[in-house]
Amino acid sequence: MPTSLVITVLVLFLNVASQTSEALDPFACDPKDGMSRNFTFCQVNLPTKSRVGDLIGRLTLQEKIGLLVNGAAAVPRLGMKGYEWWSEALHGVSNVGPGTKFGGAFPGATSFPQVITTAASFNATLWEAIGRVVSDEARAMFNGGVAGLTYWSPNVNIFRDPRWGRGQETPGEDPVVAGKYGVSYVRGLQGNDGERLKVAACCKHYTAYDVDNWNGVDRYHFNAKV
Length: 226
Ligand SMILES: *[C@@H]1O[C@H](CO)[C@@H](O)[C@H](O)[C@H]1NC(C)=O
Ligand SMILES: *[C@@H]1O[C@H](CO)[C@@H](O)[C@H](O)[C@H]1NC(C)=O
Hints:
Domain Glycoside hydrolase family 3 N-terminal: 106-218
CATH topology of the largest domain: TIM Barrel
Bound molecules: 2-acetamido-2-deoxy-beta-D-glucopyranose
GO molecular function, one term: xylan 1,4-beta-xylosidase activity
Pfam family, one: Glyco_hydro_3
Oligomer: single chain
Signal peptide: 1-23
GO biological process, one term: arabinan catabolic process
């Protein structure tokens, strides 16, 4: 993600953080912290754009880079704790990413069928409805302190070769269906409350990931020759 997008998402979370009163301490702009109260980026009544601008203006290059990776570093001088960007919710909140832990009051989450099967319904209403349920559970788990608010979902790589080991995560080989699926599922995850996100979706992956290397090691080490 570009830095400005990351910062926008961070600032949108500050709104979220200010709404959740119990379970979790907010990861930034903690009302109990006198210093945070004075930062412009913590003023929830200001437009997001001004808050993002203020925060970007305060961050050093090093701090910006630190925020661009999974397991983002804390920025204590701005009252920001570390944040784990990586959670997954392709067809239900999953614990394969380090940002989500099942256990205690949250032994698991609803697991919908693999995306390749729900995509075959060609039913965009259904795709959005599934996204809504997933984000309801994600928010409940966030409030309980066991999940993040950023999900590396949906997977919209075009399924070009049936031997690719992740094809079942995708809506299939048709770019039109994949596009419609992506729009509906992202809307289901993020909600329709203007710029306030229910959770943040992230369509993945960069292009040319959707093959495996038949002669060598795995899909992480091959020349895609686009
Ligand atoms: C925050 O601003 C208030 C009002 O201007 C001021 O009294 C206070 O000292 C400031 N706090 C910090 C930690 O800078
Ligand atoms: C599409 O899915 C919605 C939500 O589950 C359902 O109400 C509707 O009947 C489905 N449409 C078709 C044509 O099956």
